Amino acid sequence: MTQPPGRRTVCPPRVLAARHGIQPTYVTMGGTFLAVLTEEQIVSLRADPDVDSVEKLGPIQLQLR
Which of 5, 16, 50, 63 is the most buried (most CB within 10 A)? Predict the structure, then answer.
């Protein structure tokens, strides 16, 4: 399938995580996931063309409703 110029198919976060042997702690509707990662997984994610960014977050608190 050909994508229009400037657009690309978004890889679902669970598929992307599985590709790198990652078990996400939390997956958002916006196409991101949170996980505890090894250095090897970080390097692997950063080299993946489907990944826009890898960021280190501080402590987070999830509120269930």
Answer: 16
Cα–Cα distance for residue pair 34/28, rounded to 1 Å: 8
Two structure tokens written together for 9: 């198919």
Answer for the pair 24, 17: CB distance below 8 angstroms, yes or no.
yes
Closest-CA residue to 28 (of 46, 14, 38) = 14
Each residue of 46-61: pLDDT tens digit?
999 999 899 988 777 7
| Bridge partners (DSSP) listed for residue 27 | 33
SS3 16: helix
- d(CA 6, CA 20) in angstroms, rounded, equals 26
| Alpha carbon distance 45, 41 (integer Å) | 6
The pTM of the full predicted model, rounded to 2 decimals, is 0.71
